[in-house]
Every structure is written in C-alpha cells, then in structure tokens.
C-alpha cells in the first residue's frame, strides 16, 4: 500500500512539475515573440526603393526652389545614366532625371529634376573594397518647370 501511495504522489509530483515548467516556457515564448518584428511581404519595385532613398533630398530641393514646404511626389523616373569619369580613380556618377508632381491638387506643377549621385563604388574594382555608403552625395544638376495642371 505504501508503494502505491508513493507512486501516486510521485506521479502527481512529476505531472505538476511538467505542467509548471511548460507554462513558464509558453509565457517566455510569448514575451520573446512580442519583441520579434514580423517580416511582412510587401510589393515594392526597385524604383520605389530608389524614390524612398531620394525623397528627403527631393523635398529639400523643391523647398529651396519654391521657397516653402509643399507636397512632392515622384511622377516618373525619366532616365538613369551611369557616367564614367576617366580622370578619377573613384569612378563616375549616376545621373537621374525625375518628373515630379509638386503642390496640392488645385495648384499642381510638373517639374523635371536632374540629380547627380556621386558614389565611390561605380567602378567594379571599387565595389570589393568600399564597405561604407557614407561618401554618397546627391546634387542638383538641373531643375525645370514643365507645366501647371490647369495650363
């Protein structure tokens, strides 16, 4: 009889320990999962990524041109060119021509902006050695007003 009682209590002890430890692990897993950022599938094109990277500079350029902060939307990427420089060892630069929609709906203006993006890794031999992107510069080459929406 003592042996049956002992086995009963021992089994009850083991089950309760398993139950306690499993609850702690579930709570710990839930806490850890709260800290994990979920990777959400999105549908961006390379153009969307490029526009997102250039957006702060575009807002700054348009603000300087119009003298006030206004709405800026990239309407179209007109052209992208890689220009190699034979005079420097760093390579060349990218020229990007963008059509912008500037202003609110009732006063929309379409402008064309040409940007020069100087990057030290435009030459294939430099891509292997350059690890930082700190030296990338975006400069305004040309700003043209095309037309207003109501014109």
UniProtKB/TrEMBL annotation:
A Pfam cross-reference name: DUF3888
Q: Which InterPro entries match?
A: DUF3888 (IPR024984)
Which domain of life does the UniProt lineage start with?
Bacteria
Q: What is this protein called?
A: DUF3888 domain-containing protein
Q: What organism is recorded for this protein? A: Lottiidibacillus patelloidae
Lineage of origin = Bacteria, Bacillati, Bacillota, Bacilli, Bacillales
